[in-house]
Structures are given as structure tokens and as C-alpha cells.
Amino acid sequence: MRRQDTPLACCIALLLVSSVACSGLSEKDGGDKELSGTRITVAGAWTGSEQKNFQKVLDAFSDKTGANVTFVSTGNNVSTAVGGMIEDGDAPDVALLPQLGVLGQFERNGWLEPLSVSAREAVDANYADVWREYGSVNGSLYGVYYKVANKSAVWYSPSVFAEANVGRPTTFAEMLSAGQAISDSGLAAFAIAGRDGWTLTDWFENVYLSQAGPEKYDALAAHELKWTDASVVEALTSLGKLFKEDHLIAGGREGALNTDFPGSVEKVFGTEPEAGMVFEGDFVAGVAKDRFGKAIGQDVSFFSFPAAKGGIFPIISGGDAAVVLKDGKNSAAGMKLVEYLATAEAAAVWAKLGGFLSPNKRLDIHTYDSLTTRAMADSLIAAEDQVRFDMSDQAPASFGGTSGASQWRILQNFLRDPSDPESAAAELEEAAAEAYQD
């Protein structure tokens, strides 16, 4: 039976409407609690400050919609963790997938829900075409890239550069020369996180894109070009010029193989610096700021990964695609969250906190917390379709994204002994051929 409004009820309703109007609440800023009481589970690899900052984004969504959102950290092997949750009947509603190969795998398994019309429209309006392409499988859009990385940056200590009397290098050879000058001044040139094999894939990809160019990069990423190709050997040879110079690396090659990513940042920006430079994505700034209290732009600066002689400046990116899982208990509510993540409003929440880049073109560049981050974001947005996604993240996980196996292990072995690029290329091809066949 439909409730009939009484005069008292009408007065109460009028008072409530007046209160909302006076407080400035609206559907946009949280007055509409369409998901009140709904529980949404999000699974992804983020921990530490990344998890803390993303929780603030989820809290903003909760304030807006009334949903209760829980984040579950899976560890680095997202595909295995989320796959296990699905098979156990405890699938999250939303997952953050860091690899294109995993996105394709989940789609083939029938685990993904195609994005809603609203989400697709937001991606079309707010993102360059390349991000729609990377979020799609067989022409259907499944993923929104909320947070991405500019993985073509070398971070350095300005005081160390000043002490060694070197400037920002623009070629790979100049970077090695600057490294030698830093070494001569008393510190190692580079801190390398060799214990984390993914950092070594980023080293290779930047050198390869610069030397071989975008077309060969795309072909190698799809395994349409073999890893034994001369272009691969050439890139490994260039990388080997750095790896073989034990004195340029903090702790030498063996020390690098025992250094994880946070440790590599600490060796440059910690209380007792051991090196002048560390190569990795924009997230280095977040670690330097949050863990070691460094001022970005003053204590911490960066230069773009230098071009090989006659090559291009590489722009490698990566990111986590927010997808909706069919087997989630509240996948419809999860879709609302993904729609929100595709907006500039959601991007602004984390942009103000630091340690974050968004491919969202509608995000005001001045929202970022520092001039350094704005410069990185601006270069990423300006590149648009020239950006190339992290090659190892495009590969099947068994080749490009498994700790202690395949590409990671082979490049770790190459760091240990960089004397035979041809053999390393042959090992990479053997592992790739097996992975792409599966």
C-alpha cells in the first residue's frame, strides 16, 4: 500500500529539503546515498602509502554514495590471488589488474563484466585513445586506468650532481659519463633494485624503445618479433655497458641483486646515501617523500630517461586497470565505483596527496602536489598515443610478471653476468615462446 503524506510528514520533508539546500549538499557532492548499506570489495597489489591514499579515494566514494568499500591487498601476484578468490567463491567486486596479459586472461576465463555505458563515455571523454585500447580485449572495454606510472624517469640528488659538477644528461652515453663523475666524487652512480626483477624489465624496455623504435617495440611485445632479433641483442649490449661497471652500482652487481625497490630509493635519498641516481617510475617521489621526508623538487629531482644515440626519448607507462568481476557479490555497485574512478573528481583526491599520476586529461594539472609531479603528468598527457605500455605487463604472466621466473630471472642473471647478450636473448626467446604458446 502506498504511504499517504500527512501534513506533519510534509512539514518534515520540507524541513529536510531546506536543510539540504542550506548545507549545500547535492547529488554531486554526497547528498545522494544511492548505495547506502552496500558493501563493495576491491582487490589490488597496493600496500603502505599507496593503499592509504587509495583508501581516501574509496572514502570519498563512500561519502558520495553511502557504500561501504573495503580494500584487500593481494601482494604482487595479483592474478594468482584474485583467481584463487574467484575459484573459492569469494570474488571481489572490483580488481586492479597490473598487466595486460592478466586482463586478457581474465577475459578469456569469462570473469570480467564489460564496462557500463557511463564508464565507456567517461573513458571516451577523459582519456587518450591509447588508454581505451589498453583497457580493451577484442574490442570490448573492461578496464579503467585510474593510476598510471611514467616509467621513463631517472631520479637524482641535486646536491650530489652539484658536488660532481654534472648536469642532466640527454643521451645514454652522457648518463654513463655523469655516473663516472659521481663515482669519482665518492658515491656510486646508480642504485639498482635487482632483487625485484620487474625493475630490470623497465631498464631494458626504455633502452629498447629508444634504440629500436615504437614499431619494433610493439612487435616484440606481441611476440611477433623474436627475442633473438638483432635489436634485442643491441639493447642488451647497451644495458650491459652499465651493468658491467661494478663500481658504478651501489654494492656492485651482487649488492644490486640483494636490493629491493624501496631499498634502491633509500640508497639515494635515505639518511646515508650510497648513490646519486635511481631509475624507476614517478612513484619514486612518493617513497622519497613519505619514507625519508625529502622535498620533491629540492632534495629530489628527475630527468627523462635519456635517448640512445640517434634514438628517441622513450615514454614507457604502466598502470592498474580497474575491472568489475562477474562473480562479485555486488558487481553492480562495483560498476558504480569504476565509473567514479574514470572521473577527474576521483583523480583529484589522490593527486593532492602525491605519489600519483593520472592519464585523465580533464584533471587540472595544478591539482598535483608539486611542480615536479606536474611536469611528469604533463609529459605523459602530451605524449598521448605515443606512450607505450610496459612490455612485460603486456606479456603472459608466466613470462613477464612472475617473481623468480622467466624474464625477471633471466634479466637478473644478465645483471649478475652481462658478458653474453646473445645468450641472454636466446634464453628470453625460449621462455617467451613457451609462454605465448600456452
TrEMBL record:
Residues 418-438 are annotated as: Disordered. Residues 1-23 form the signal peptide. Pfam families: SBP_bac_1. Keywords: Signal, Transport. Residues 427-438 have a biased composition (Acidic residues). InterPro entries: Bact_solute-bd_prot1, SBP. Belongs to the bacterial solute-binding protein 1 family. This is ABC transporter substrate-binding protein.
